[in-house]
């Protein structure tokens, strides 16, 4: 503060190291606060003691919380350590990942199809898509899973053939439908409804002029969608869909309804066998979910960066680049401060 | 639209359906993680069933000699006899309820007194046991749909459930209060000591009825007893050690198991006193549950009575430390908890 | 026209010389009406643009100029009447004495022969300048990729933007973007190019460079239909000026006739306001 208010050197004997100010500047008596030469002086940054104090307080609080987490016996970190990579937990983790991966891909594909149907010129397709989205957004996922799980009791066989006509090929459904498949189908059906709205919003976010330009150039319809509209729509789709995906990761914890134990299901199951370890088990699940979400967020950052080509004049820096830049400015600033 | 064109459209549609189905089929290459089979190797030829395997301290691993009884097999409905297997439903997902049904100490196999008893019954009837673990809801939907033959899952016989199911009783409850070790409260059968307490209980259970009766009596005396419900044992346990509730009122075997498991943790618990599951009015019975009119209740009850008479029943209860819950005989559709509270 | 950008001016010399320049095509508009619901936008337009002719369409906003252009390349379907290009109907075909709608695929093929330059450029922001220009010839099967990129570079040179081939559109000024858009339209080798107010979205100092490129196209003998507000430019390049008002063609003729001696009061009023 004091630096900024009081110039280091008296005005009329302007520092000799500076480029000589033009005499015109010196002749009229200048007011005391006006700088001697405004041309190429570096501005001394404003000091902010308040910010330093709040930062310090925040850091102390954070340290206390971490210390509390580490030392409170309630969390039983030794048991956390025991459970963290137990086969039963990693098996559950694999189920979570498998179900999420399949459902994310199938859900997105279904969502694209539904979104295209919703935006198509056929009123029948539009209506079917609307009804599907309406239905699956209304029905709780648990009910969908429960229904699918007991589907085989309602329909013993699935057959291929002319609808309402003779069939050529029969499946015994209870053999076809593994628990994993039921879970994936259930989550995908549900996910597709939400993905459809995300994709539709993305497509609508593409400027009408882009559609017109593509049409005016006579680009084939498929090319218009795949190369012109979709890449631009993805810019809007990716963040929302990743959000959806993170919800899906945790949504998989409902798959115990189809007798499949994912990460959270395994934790619950072990919690009942080892009631003394419920808290560390819940922490294990939490840490795994934090890891999964973090990985997805990192992937999201780079995917978004990829699809922002052309939309921004310069790409945003990666976290590493930002960290490096931040450190450099900090070092420069510290050097400058210590020099004065 | 011409006829030829419409049939082509229909074919295209059905082909599309097929493609969708197959895609999904390819995607599903994972496997079921739970619903594993029996806890140990059962071989009908050896005439023995192992119970209380992988019990994690809740029981003592025991071989029980048992073999098919032809006359009981003859009682089975034709469809079950022909299939040669008994699908035993357990509703222990995602969280089990040890020692009755839970994932054992190998951290992957379903064990517990309930599936063990189902396997004993299957052995007497000369059927291959297939144990299916599912959620509580799916256990009943499974029985409704015919996916599951019989539920052995600590199911209480109630008049409400009798509308849809037949029962063959095999066990009674004893109840207990679980409190933290630091608590000074004890229960000696005098419900007035519950005044001012907050107690958790399982919804829709026999013990809930008992607790609610006490609550009503205390209220009449101008005192308060707060009753809390939690979705499963894990949540109840957390609430107890976290101080949200003063006590948990539940089945004695489960509470005994939790206390044993808790002993080495920073938040140990203890038993504050037991109470007969007979309650104030009626003894609640645990029963094997089959679809109404399936014809399975009678052969199962007869099989249980055979096990009682020949000593395997007592060995099974002893293996799981449940001897104080024995019934003298198995009944088909005994009087259950009445439909309404009043 | 004094603000002629240096790079654009240097591009002018080779525009006319190209040997494989497609033959210009005549445009005929036959009794076209266009309604949006009850709102009448075009009210019986008959217009013939001879091959190689440069026609400038003037008129107050809302007079239907842009809609007319969009009807010509079938971005809008006329409610009545039709447009033909070199004698071939656009978006429709004659069948047993009646006009029938073409499939979208056929319409897209026809559009490849009509260049269209938008007011807001509408370049594809996620593609580089080169990809913008080369996309259509590749996608429609006109050229192979290497061939198309080679031609695209030549076209970019012609509009003075050869060095910007690898930039993204948003890194360019408005005038540069519009010149890329013109190159993109040229890449399909159209027989006619339609310009929909090509300079209206530009800062005044960028207008010249775009008009210079259009002027060179005019000199090259391509059929051009230009909707614009640049009266001076119209006077300079137009073979014919068409004045529209209220969805009708009010008067047409040489620039001297329409701009200097307008006969219709609406034309007189419009010109007195803009000049």
Automatic annotation (TrEMBL), chain A:
Keyword Thylakoid: no
Endpoints of the signal sequence: none
Protein origin, superkingdom: Bacteria
GO BP: amino acid transport
Subcellular location: Cell membrane
Residue ranges of the region described as Disordered: 1-43
Topology in the lipid bilayer: Multi-pass membrane protein
Keywords in alphabetical order: Amino-acid transport, Cell membrane, Membrane, Transmembrane, Transmembrane helix, Transport
GO cellular component, one term: ATP-binding cassette (ABC) transporter complex
Transmembrane segments: 52-75, 95-117, 129-149, 278-303
ABC transmembrane type-1 domain location: 93-300
GO molecular function: transmembrane transporter activity
Pfam families the record matches: BPD_transp_1
UniProt key word Lipid metabolism: no
Family of the protein in this entry: Belongs to the binding-protein-dependent transport system permease family.
Protein name: Polar amino acid transport system permease protein
Lineage, uppermost ranks: Bacteria, Bacillati, Actinomycetota, Actinomycetes, Kitasatosporales
From TrEMBL, chain B:
Gene3D superfamilies, sorted: Periplasmic binding protein-like II
The keyword Signal belongs to this UniProt entry's keyword annotation: yes
This protein's UniProt keywords: Signal
Stretches assigned to the Solute-binding protein family 3/N-terminal domain: 87-324
Keyword flag Signal: yes
InterPro entries recorded: Solute-binding_3/MltF_N
Leader sequence residues: 1-27
SMART domains linked to this entry: PBPb (SM00062)
Name by which UniProt lists this protein: Polar amino acid transport system substrate-binding protein
Species this chain originates from: Streptacidiphilus jiangxiensis
From TrEMBL, chain C:
Record has Transmembrane as a keyword: no
PROSITE patterns attached to this UniProt entry: ABC_TRANSPORTER_1, ABC_TRANSPORTER_2
InterPro entries per UniProt: AAA+_ATPase, ABC_ATPase_HisP-typ, ABC_transporter-like_ATP-bd, ABC_transporter-like_CS, MetN_ABC_transporter-like, P-loop_NTPase
Coiled-coil annotated spans: none
Subcellular location: Cell membrane
Pfam family, one: ABC_tran
Cell membrane is among the record's keywords: yes
Keywords: ATP-binding, Cell membrane, Membrane, Nucleotide-binding, Transport
Record domain ABC transporter: where: 27-271
GO cellular component: plasma membrane
GO molecular function: ATP binding; ATP hydrolysis activity; ATPase-coupled polar amino acid-transporter activity
Family matches, as SUPFAM superfamilies: P-loop containing nucleoside triphosphate hydrolases
CDD domains: ABC_HisP_GlnQ
Reaction(s) this enzyme catalyzes, per UniProt: a polar amino acid(out) + ATP + H2O = a polar amino acid(in) + ADP + phosphate + H(+)
Major enzyme class: translocase
Topology within the bilayer: Peripheral membrane protein
Record EC number: 7.4.2.1
Official protein name in the record: ABC-type polar-amino-acid transporter
Species annotation: Streptacidiphilus jiangxiensis
